[in-house]
Amino acid sequence: MKKLLSLAVAVSIGISAHVHADRLSSELIKPIEPAVVTEPEKVELGKKLWFDPRLSMSGFISCNSCHNLSMGGSDNLPTSIGHNWAEGPINSPTVLNSSLAVAQFWDGRAADLKEQAGGPIANPLEMASNHALAVDVINSIPQYREEFARVYGSPEVTIENITDAIAVFEETLVTPNSRFDLWLKGDDSALTAQELAGYETFKSIGCVACHNGPAAGGTSFQRMGVVEPYQTDNPAEGRVAVTGKDADRFNFKVPTLRNVELTYPYFHDGAYWELEKAVDVMARLQLGRQLNEEEIGNVVAFLKTLTGDQPELSMPILPPSTNDTPRPQPFGAK
Amino acid sequence: MKKLLSLAVAVSIGISAHVHADRLSSELIKPIEPAVVTEPEKVELGKKLWFDPRLSMSGFISCNSCHNLSMGGSDNLPTSIGHNWAEGPINSPTVLNSSLAVAQFWDGRAADLKEQAGGPIANPLEMASNHALAVDVINSIPQYREEFARVYGSPEVTIENITDAIAVFEETLVTPNSRFDLWLKGDDSALTAQELAGYETFKSIGCVACHNGPAAGGTSFQRMGVVEPYQTDNPAEGRVAVTGKDADRFNFKVPTLRNVELTYPYFHDGAYWELEKAVDVMARLQLGRQLNEEEIGNVVAFLKTLTGDQPELSMPILPPSTNDTPRPQPFGAK
């Protein structure tokens, strides 16, 4: 009897392991893996730069201003506030898991995080500085020069090294261990029946065709408004700005759904604050499906299982400016 | 011989302890003691609120925006940037060790940190919200209500509790273990000869008459420009705005010198970026003394020994807004 029971348990474990291995290979959303830090000093340097508002002309805006790591790596605004309270043109995408995306920015105009990081520094609607000035500022600070020397072998600060360090820090900003990932890896109790029902709807109506991969998005560019046009006042035209091809008009990078409950408001224009409405719009405009209230509730319940462990960060202490540091100009030269 | 040696050592320790006890009682600057946290959950709640930009109308400005804990608890700007890029009227004082001050704000118009905390939330040039709206925002977020229930015994959020939690968090933002404090407590090797010479000048010309106590300041209101008037475009008139007494015109709270190397630019108008120049101006205008370059260098060297351990903080993860949360209005109602 004892032997039989052991056999039954063994068979049961075998089946269970088989089912779970199947999930990892058969499901189109893959788990987020924890960051593997191979260059901790570079990450630490990148973190300082991430939080340093001296990369902006005003001395007020840092990377974290619009990709706030206390708020899902976003600013929770329709479009961002930039230098001189400029109204940004597009919704600030979350930095969380951004290393998993095929390209950066909504239109994919930056190939990778390093290329992306140089953009906001010099964008007059964002940090409104320029690369030469940003380098001068960091170069004027002895502690930064020491850190660059340790990490890059030379105390001379360059925009390449600044953006490289920021990018390497950003690569650590992944959010593993969401309940959905626990389920993917075999924990049947990680999701409720409602959440599983939502996931089934998500797959069966076709959301997963675009929202796939470890980030549940970020793997392709797709037209915003396939079945019906998307109504918006936002003038962004998407990927056509990069490729010049008319076929790419209104094509945007598919945003990640990881931590989507934290990254409201939604879409490239940030026009939708409620996840229920965003799901409804997507189903209708992209897939020609009118979901009922229960289905929407289920999908939203599933989407909330994609919230993972948020990065645990200690606030960096920034090295002070010196008498030689170019001064911030928040209100223009005086 | 061994006994004699022991005796000699004992005598030497006795003398040394005597000298050090003397320092603690005779010196007018006292050590900063580490924070004693008796209500950790309240501190944690206060930290969340400190970093939460939803207390502002725009959803962009938090307490930390102008009292940045990565930058000595200040914004390192002459005057602060507020809602709609408003140019603030006065230099943002450091929050570090602010619990040790006799009152809050440059003119002391708030009796304590709790009273202070309500000010910026409702100031149209700062966070530009109002207390009712701030309460509505926090009240709409279940995780905050749970935390308030645990900490204050009721899930109902009030402005009194919001500002109390922020103040209790701020009380933890002290900076012990500066090299100067190690010296005060008896470590003769903590200061160099130059730093000690600077401290002697600091005392002998009279700086310490106002910059005293554990915060090396914050204990009194004093006229800015005693011997000579202070030249500034800044219209702030100081404590007269609170007391209505003409004798209080241009009286300001003496700022702390703790962490002064991190809290540039200096004075209530933030007009001086270089510590050397600030020392020169103070000696001339307040004390009628023209210090030479060596004396100024010595005093600056001493002032840099007042930089203590900066608070070690983990970035809080803020609870997400709900569909019922009043939305931020960065660019006015739309």
Average pLDDT of chain A, rounded to a whole number, is 94
- The CATH topology of the largest domain in chain A: Cytochrome Bc1 Complex, Chain D, domain 2
Order of helix and strand elements from N to C terminus of chain A? HHHEEHHHHHHEHEHH
So, CATH architecture of the largest domain in chain A? Orthogonal Bundle
Query: How widely separated are the two ends of chain A?
Result: 89 Å
CATH superfamily (homologous) name of the largest domain in chain A: Cytochrome c-like domain
Oligomer: homodimer
**What would you report as the Rg of chain A, rounded to the nearest angstrom?**
22 Å
How many domains in all of chain A?
Answer: 2
Give the overall form of chain A: globular
Count of runs of 4 or more consecutive helical residues of chain A:
12
Helical fraction of chain A equals 25-40%
Kindly estimate the percentage of residues of chain A that lie in beta strands according to DSSP.
under 5%
Give the uncertain stretches of chain A in residue-range form.
4-14
Question: How many β strands of chain A by DSSP?
Answer: 4
Largest interface: A-B, 42 and 40 residues
Structural class of chain A: mainly alpha
> Which strands sit side by side, in order, in the main sheet of chain A?
1-2
Question: Which CATH class of the largest domain in chain A?
Answer: Mainly Alpha
Largest sheet, strands/sense/barrel of chain A:
2 strands, antiparallel
Question: What's the topology here?
Answer:
2 copies of one chain form a homodimer.
Chain A: H1 2-26, H2 40-51, H3 63-66, E1 81-82, E2 86-87, H4 113-122, H5 131-139, H6 142-152, H7 159-170, H8 179-184, H9 193-204, E3 221-223, H10 240-243, E4 251-253, H11 275-287, H12 293-303
Antiparallel strand pairs in A: 1-2, 3-4
Domain Cytochrome c (chains A, B): 41-149, 193-307
Pfam families (chains A, B): CCP_MauG, Cytochrom_C
Keywords (chains A, B): Heme, Iron, Metal-binding, Oxidoreductase, Periplasm, Peroxidase, Signal
